Amino acid sequence: MSHPLYEFVADLSYPDIPIEARERVKLSILDSLCTAVAGSSLGDGAAAVLRAGREAGGAGSMPAAGFGVGLSPLGAALVNGATSHALNFDMVGPFGAHLGVVTFAAPSAAAELRGKVSGEEYIAAVTAGAELMSRMAAAARDAASGVGGVHPRLLEGQLLGYFGAAAASAAVLGLDADGVHDAIGLALMQAAGTMEVVLGGDVPAKAAYGGFANHGGLLAASLARAGLRANMDVFGGKAGVYPYYYGGSLTDNSALVNGLGTEYRLLESRFKLWPTSGLLHPFIEAVVQWRAGSPAAEIARVTVRGPEWLRPWATPQEARRRPANGAAASNSLQYALAKAFTAGTVRLSDLTPTGIADPVARELADRIDFDEVDDAGDGVEEIAVRLADGTERLLRPAKPRGSPGQPLPTGDVEDKFLDALRQGAVPVDSDTAQRVIATVRSLEDLADVRDLWRLLPGGAA
User: Which CATH number, 3.30.1330.120, 3.40.50.1000, 3.30.70.141, 3.30.70.120, labels domain 278-395?
Assistant: First the structure.
């Protein structure tokens, strides 16, 4: 029951990785670290997760990013996994695979467990985990039909995150192909994640789902390292990933293995400029390109038309117009567009109670409607804007900056990181923040990758 993916994860080395893929992975590592710092203070449930991480594993040398305390590796995987995605601001991969969920928390904790791991080894391990997760997401579309590119019931960032985190951790720990197989099998035994946390009203625990995937992924790799066998048919069989979660078997392995080692699906990932669901970014981009920073009084009414898959982010409309917390705000179409119209952007501060209570944005959000259309095909989404003078404008969702082929200017990338690092429960000072950014940019030169997180408050030398 061996699979080429297990050999890929075990054998991938830094020189094998194309430069473009290396740089994308380094960007994702830095992105996840910085968003974890910001999530420590702004993320719903972050304080509760920290308490649980401390109780479960006690103190240790792995920093809980942004909190200024050290935890055990398993505790840190839980906490850093939760905070890195708590703001919905981490890098998103193809077909709902939130690569940012798995590119820092679990593999860094695995490196803390193993000891000295070079920067090159670390980049290769994270690349392997991110690529496995990207290919699993692509294969899911062969096994079942997701609507609008999103499965209507599965929270795939969490579900597939178990496997990406397990693979990256197994590679960091130096497991061979059989050991990787065991780790992925043990991830299957834990994997979970449904959209009820969104459909049921964006409960605060939604912000913490990355913690489950990273804790479970690291635990899976650790158990495999200890010799626990789980060499089952993870992807197929009678109850593997695709038959069980997606309701169908893969007709072939093409999405999982075609071009493996030469073509990197992780390059389809998108860097997020705004701390909202990535599904909202094309709508935000359209507004920002057209008329960012408009006085709210100039806009009489906005109607967003879209298919059924957009419904969870737009309904119930009254709740979406007045989000109850940061998690709900980051998933609200109406709130995000109100901020885009009036401020020209959506900022981390917009997810705070003060930001959510902004009277200008709230007043405009009350005039933003969602109209579901029957056609579920691509290209039916539009934003109809009626201005106070009676004129109308029809906007189409636009490819957001940060997408493949639409890179962000270097200044925008650095501004995001510096702003995120300032937002920690224990803020990172400007000099240290610049050192963190510079260290990741030359991560391959580190003899011991732990030197990166030792820069953070709570990192033990």
Answer: 3.30.1330.120
